[in-house]
Amino acid sequence: MRHHCPALANKTYFNYGGQGPLPTPTLEAITSSWQRIQELGPFTADVWPYISREVNSTRALLAGLCGVAPHRLALSENVTSGCVLPLWGLPLAPGDRILISDCEHPGVVAACHELARRQQLQIDTLTVQQLRGGREEQAQTDAAVLQALETHFQPRTRLVVLSHLLWNTGQRMPIAAVAAQLRQHPSQPYLLVDAAQSFGQIPVAEAAAAADIYAFTGHKWACGAEGLGGVALSERVLAEASPTLIGWRSLQDETRAVMGDPDPFHHDSRRFEVATSCIPLMAGLRTSLELLEQQGSAERRLEQIQALSAKLWQQLATLPGATPLLEGPPPAGLVSFTLTAASPPSQVVQALGAEGIWIRDLADPACLRACTHITSTDEELLQLQEALAELLRV
């Protein structure tokens, strides 16, 4: 797959958690789809069957990867819209509480804060940032997360927000176990999962099927184009949540909207879809997912990613002046670390970029993050190690 990605030919790339490189066959599939739409006519009777097949096949593929039926999978543009649209439709009441982990992305946190302001909700913090055992202590981490939930639960906790793979520390969260614990809680809280760092990197079916809202994107670890993602929704969200941002795709009958219509919206995940989307991106994402599958099963690919991230973690752990955030090898491909006696993280990123090595810096906690994927190589790991060692010597 590496040879299919032009972006990997002239740089040392560790930013898969921000955006994955686009394989050439994926770009060709997108271009071919656009050409086909223009041949059929972009708004003709001939094009609608083609578009319907594209949408239905993409929905079915993503639903299968998420372990849910297609009617539970809504197509979205990105993780944020996948999280926020169903979130804002949940039947929450003034005085209800939202429990958000201290490792959530600012986009989701800000949406929860604004929802709380508008609906007079209360925000509580679930502390998980200090859980840094790595892959070898996953069982202890899982137990600590479940205990933290019990500690922070309030009688009116109605929503828990927790990422599957924490975007800053790289620690994995036990989403299926969390969902099972929430079902035992008297208030039956909803579970919203940010899956930005999990989809395309680790097997997601168990977690996605267990969560109420499991939102992901195709442009990171799945190496699709930006602008297309999805969200797996539970049956109770489909039954209890109201549409929020409404458009013709939300409607059972897209040709009419009548005052007083008691039942205008789809009863399935489409109630959270809005309007016109970029159809060619669907062919692209399916192609990228097929290319990944050709490299092995999701479980096998994760083993490759873990082997590479473990090597990088070990190199950093033995490099004087570098300290990995996790105490053991990472459970996936996110390797976060700090440097002592070096420039601020943002300047380290710039200095490495000048040498064609691309990582990123994060603010909370302040650290650097390098991501390994199945397209990463041992040579790249060594290049990063040597470049960091040189910066630490300066």
Written overview of the protein:
With 394 residues, the protein is of the alpha/beta class. It has 2 domains: 7-20 and 297-393, Alpha-Beta Complex (Aspartate Aminotransferase, domain 1); 47-288, Type I PLP-dependent aspartate aminotransferase-like (Major domain) (Aspartate Aminotransferase, domain 2). It contains 12 helices and 13 strands. Helix 1 packs antiparallel against helix 9 (280-294) and helix 3 (79-87) runs parallel beside helix 4 (106-119). The chain is globular. The mean pLDDT is 97.
In short:
40% of the residues lie in helices and 14% in strands. It is an alpha/beta fold.
Notable characteristics:
about 400 residues, alpha/beta, Aspartate Aminotransferase, domain 1, Aspartate Aminotransferase, domain 2, 7-stranded mixed beta sheet, about 40% helix
CATH fold group of the largest domain: Aspartate Aminotransferase, domain 2
Q: Please indicate the count of domains.
A: 2
Number of strands: 13
As a whole number of angstroms, the C-alpha radius of gyration is 22 Å
Helix vs. strand class: alpha/beta
Strand fraction equals 5-15%
The stretches of 5 or more residues where confidence is low (pLDDT under 50) are none
Helix count, DSSP H or I runs of 4 or more residues: 12
Write the layout of secondary structure elements.
Blueprint: E1 12-13, H1 24-40, H2 47-66, E2 73-76, H3 79-87, E3 97-101, H4 106-119, E4 122-126, H5 138-152, E5 157-161, H6 175-183, E6 190-194, H7 205-210, E7 213-217, E8 229-233, H8 235-240, H9 280-294, H10 298-317, E9 322-324, E10 334-339, H11 345-354, E11 357-358, E12 360-363, E13 366-371, H12 378-393
Parallel strand pairs: 1-11, 3-4, 3-5, 5-6, 6-7
Antiparallel strand pairs: 2-8, 7-8, 9-10, 10-13, 12-13
